[in-house]
Amino acid sequence: MDLTELTRTLSNLSGPSGFESAVYAWIAEYLRPVADEVRTDALGNMIAVKRCGKPGAKMILLDAHMDEIGFIVTGAKDGFLRFGMLGGVDQRMLPAREVKVLTDPPMFGVIDTMPPHVLTDEEKEKAFPPDKLCIDVGLTQEEAERLVPPGTPVVYGNTFEELGEKYLCGKALDDRACAAIIIKAFERLCGEELNADVCCLVSTQEEVGHRGATVAAWSVQPDAALVVDVTHGRMPDAPEVPCECGKGAAIGIGPNMNPALSRELIALARTRGIAYRPEAVPGGNSGTNAHAVQMAREGVVTGLISLPLKYMHTPVEVVCREDMDAIVELLAAYVESLEV
Amino acid sequence: MLDTMETLCCLGGVTGGEDEVRDYILERAMPHADEIRTDPMGDLMIFKKGAKAPARRVMLCAHMDEVGLIVTNITDGGYLRFDQAGGIDRRVLLGKQVFIGPERVPGVIGAKAFHLTTPEQRKRVPAMGEMYIDIGADSKEEAQRQVHIGDLAAFSDTVVRFGDGFIKAKAIDDRAGCAAMLELIESDLPCDCWFAFTVQEEVGSRGATVAARSIEPEVALILETTTAADIPAAEGDKQVCRLGHGVVIPFMDRGTIYDRELYALLGRLADENDIPWQTKTMIAGGTDGSVVQRTGGGVRVAAVSVPVRNIHSPASLAKVSECEDQLRLARLFLQEMAK
Fold first, then answer.
1. What is the pLDDT of residues A1-10, one digit of tens each?
2. Domain with B92 in it: what CATH number?
3. What is the value of pTM for the model shown?
4. CA of B304 to nearest chain A CA: how many angstroms apart?
5. Where are the alpha helices (DSSP H) in chain A?
6. Residue B104 pLDDT > 80, yes or no?
């Protein structure tokens, strides 16, 4: 499947933090024909492994997370669903928002707006307080209670589309666009003669604290890890953001990355003509799975490669297809360059 | 009726650019019309003979336009600045998908990621002038190859039926009324009737002003939609009207005090035919009725509206049965006019 179609498929799957099984199932099925081994664990991670068959080969971990931000139903009033947040939801995005309520089968819903006439002048200037919003599923109270019990997860409705010639837009591109990238790189590596074993980890529960990667990095025991996540891309109202969409892979430099590995990635990108830009990442926790992976067991040599993304945590996240291609190249080039 | 409405909702007809809607209606109405008029503003007026000539000249009226956005500028970076075309609560805009211009160029309304905002900014919705549409162009030149200043942008056009007989679409206001009128045109009528499909209702009933002068009706029935705020956050009278409680027959809104006899007639017809109906519990909103009423020497005006949640948003919701009841009640009204 071509990278755009793979991203479309993954974007449209439903898998908020803690409820990723549909995403797991699809990716596991997709990779089973090419991988030597596909397995999961207690947190629902998708772990696919390709072994090179050489004694003493190193294990290289590629990670991206499969979970997306979302909501969880807490109750119903007058047939409307009350909800809480799963992960860091941008609450300004909610009014008149189409959602998928993850019952079986899923149910269409809309987060209702409050018309201006029910608001005071002061309230009119503000974003809607989320505790006043509710999900409209067009049901009576009795039906809502029966069909949508508390604890039912909810995600944004599907929005995937291509913008212009180079850009992809959709929900959950944080981090499914990167999941598509590592899957694509892994697929390619599976068809090659390598000097290292490769693990493709599509991990769960990143948005609530890197929980999936914490346990998967433990069980996989990688010798080196490349974590692929999104970083803010420059937006018209955030001109100070250093990374621009369309300028290639952002290679992280900072305490959360192994400096030698960062240098190696940059050198590799330069010699192979892969578009990149160094990204300074201050602090010990980059806010990505690199934080968990780097401190797995007795420590892991970890690199962070980021895909610039506009409008993070909205239903219309935007990434550049060329940047995705660059990261696929860089990941594959890194593994291919390893010697025995 | 529902298929017609779904088709109409998907067409782009932002106020001032109703061509797609007009072309579609004209094509379907043409074989059934006895007279067709348009005017320089873009209104479409269809006359159809019925079983008899009514005592008074009757006009039905629904507006073709919808609220949307208009491109006001293109930035050096290739983003589109916009303003509203028709009244939109700007809080429903962030993160929405739109399509722009006749070529239907897809775009999204972006906003700085909330991680980068201050706690104050996080609670505030940017002013319309601070928002922008991203069409995936890297420069002004690239954007200008696809869109132009003055292009109109409409909300994403997927229609969904869900829940207990609900429909979600953009532009239910007022394609519901247009669909009802189109169904009437395609059926046998009890009496002669003029149908006015008007433009620019959302910016001040500008199309209806001139269309009514052309038709010179003596009696007019406006087929509209109206704000329903029947959500838990609004209580009592502030809910205005409620989905599932019948079509709305208004006695008064901010533009019109409706003809008392016609108001009573519609209520009686609904009661006699088991059509659930309600009236509004707040004096809010307005319809083309305001200008039609004050046309020439004056016109007797009434309205039947479908209650709509999230009106003027990309995800407006209506009850299918109430769209059908609007059509039924309009037909009963024409039967009464034939007497």
1. 999 999 999 9
2. 2.40.30.40
3. 0.94
4. 21
5. 3-12, 21-31, 121-124, 141-147, 173-190, 211-220, 259-272, 290-294, 321-337
6. yes
